[in-house]
Write a structure and sequence with these properties.
The protein is of the alpha/beta class. It is 37% helix and 18% strand. The chain contains 16 helices and 14 strands. The protein has a 7-stranded parallel sheet with strand order 3-2-1-4-5-6-7, sandwiched between helices. Strands 10-9-8-11-12-13-14 form a 7-stranded parallel sheet, with helices on both faces. It starts with a helix and ends in an 8-residue tail after the last strand. Bound molecules: nicotinamide-adenine-dinucleotide (NAD). Residues 246-247, 249-253, 270-272, 275, 294-296, 319-322, 342, 369, 371, 414, 416-417, 419-422 line the site of nicotinamide-adenine-dinucleotide.
């Protein structure tokens, strides 16, 4: 689906008109393109008292290719950066000439132990925000509040959520703001997530909070499971992996298949038999495989497990989903049942089969597609919202048991994404859905796909049991 308004206000005439009559002007988001550098430009670094993560950050900045400047709150950055071979300087507070020269603002709040120390956040963002360019990135790093040693530290760390989400709403211009809570001992697990939040791949992900837990390598950890930054091939992180994607014939599922294949995975797409031509057409250019199965059929899980044969699978993406909207009083039992069955119960049955047969390998990744309707509820979607909230419950309840096999399970909750599913929504509701978020536009299937590729990454072993919204920081369920 095309967003005609966004295209219009970004044309020369439309931009002039929007300016003169004060129309909102959503930014054309900068998305990842293989033919452009993913990381380049100047990042400003800030820090609170006694920051713990600067050394890990310097490693990421050095490996990714950014340059950096230290705000006065983080002068400890300068010797650290030098140790990592980084050229660095001091940030000069915004003047009229500095607007737009920064591509990202990174603040290490991990050492903040008391609300009195939150002033350093004000100093940094007050000085730097005006210098952040269009589609810039803001990432705040803290410690998981629930693991803090004192109530005051917990309080101060929890406060970071309010700051980050407000920055996302204030910054506009295609800028995103996200928060990472990095557990003590998980510093080396943070790189894949930090790269994702700094990359154009996270163009439509804003206002999110992700927890990074430590990963203890067990004796069974294999070389291909290694998550250390130096062992990861950042260009083709999924090389040698096999991924199953349900509902892969079109829309978000087709984009997921393409994103995983671009990162090196062999993708096995699943879709209903009536969509098999479209499925073949999607999988052929990806050199993937196609399995025409209805995931709701009772025999399908065993058939998929058998089709995956002894090669097994490393990544399972539960994307297939349907809507059958009606208020509950007018809804048929069949509409209720089929939505819960396809969107939720079929995921459970497929995972059970793949886990029981050992088809899903240890160290694997499960990513489920939920929805912001599952978080906020939605008029006319009792069946859909029930199924999508159930998906969140699945992720939360399965993380610990699957952790015993070093398998992670996470969900993405898309907001308004431009697909055939949302094209069916009546125009007025569709327009409201598009604009009611901090980026004032709908997302693209690729935005969900890139988020799933990040969660499937070998460097994401410390991210499990979480729900990441891909919604441009939608006001719904915020
Ligand atoms: N588009 C959005 O704005 C949006 C928002 C939130 C969540 N989602 C979720 O994202 C996922 C993909 O949505 P989309 O917009 O790409 O939808 P879509 O209708 O364009 O694609 C869904 C795909 O799933 C397949 N499918 C449906 N039932 C199946 C079954 N029983 N067995 C196998 N395959 C089946 C369909 O054939 C289709 O190819 C869904 O789970 C949806 O609920 C979408």
């Amino acid at each position: 689906m095309k967003d005609s308004y966004l295209n219009f206000v970004n044309s020369p005439f439309g931009a002039r008109l929007a300016r003169s009559i004060g129309l909102p002007k959503p930014e054309v988001l900068r998305r990842y393109r293989a033919d452009r550098p993913e990381f380049e430009g100047l990042v400003a670094i800030g820090a609170g008292r006694a920051p713990h993560l600067l050394d890990a950050l310097a490693g990421v900045i050095a490996r990714s290719g950014f340059t950096s400047v230290a705000h006065e709150s983080a002068l400890g950055w300068i010797p650290l950066a030098a140790r990592h071979g980084l050229m660095t300087g001091r940030f000069e507070p915004a003047d009229s000439g500095s607007q737009g020269r920064l591509v990202a603002l990174l603040f290490d709040a991990s050492g903040i132990e008391d609300s009195g120390e939150l002033d350093s956040l004000f100093a940094f963002f007050h000085d730097t925000l005006r210098s952040l360019g269009k589609c810039g990135r803001i990432v705040v790093l803290g410690r998981p509040p629930q693991a803090c040693a004192t109530p005051r530290q917990w309080t101060a760390q929890r406060a970071l959520e309010g700051l980050t989400r407000s920055l996302g709403k204030e910054a506009r211009r295609g800028i995103t703001a996200n928060l990472m809570y990095v557990a003590q001992g998980a510093e080396d697990e943070a790189e894949a997530t930090l790269r994702f939040f700094l990359s154009p791949r996270s163009a439509y992900v804003s206002g999110q909070v992700v927890q990074i837990a430590g990963v203890t390598a067990s004796p069974q950890t294999t070389a291909t499971e290694s998550t250390t930054a130096t062992a990861i091939d950042w260009a083709q992180p999924l090389a040698g992996k096999r991924a199953v994607v349900t509902g892969a014939a079109r829309g978000i599922g087709a984009a997921i298949a393409a994103a995983l294949a671009a990162e090196g995975a062999h993708v096995i797409g699943v879709d209903i038999p009536s969509a098999s031509d479209a499925l073949e057409a999607t999988m052929r250019p990806l050199s993937g495989s196609a399995l025409a199965f209805d995931i709701a059929a009772p025999e399908t899980p065993a058939q998929i497990a058998a089709a995956l044969d002894e090669l097994g699978v490393d990544i399972v993406v539960h994307n297939a989903g349907i809507t059958k909207d009606k208020t509950i009083a007018r809804m048929t039992e069949a509409a209720w049942h089929s939505v819960i069955d396809i969107n939720l119960a079929a995921q459970e049955r497929l995972d059970d089969a793949l886990l029981a047969a050992g088809t899903l390998r240890d160290g694997g990744r499960i990513v489920c597609v939920s929805s912001i309707s599952g978080i906020a509820g939605n008029m006319g979607q009792t069946n859909y919202a029930t199924s999508k909230a159930g998906v969140i419950g699945r992720v939360q309840s399965m993380a610990a048991p699957l952790g015993e096999r070093r398998i992670t399970i996470n969900a993405v909750a898309p907001g308004f994404i431009e697909t055939q599913m949302t094209a069916k929504i009546p125009l007025a509701i569709r327009e409201a859905g598009r604009r009611m978020n901090s980026l004032s536009q709908g997302g693209q299937p690729v935005d969900v796909a890139q988020t799933i590729a990040w969660l499937a990454h070998p460097g994401c072993a410390g991210v499990t049991g979480q729900v990441v919204r891909v919604c441009g920081q939608s006001l719904i369920g915020a």
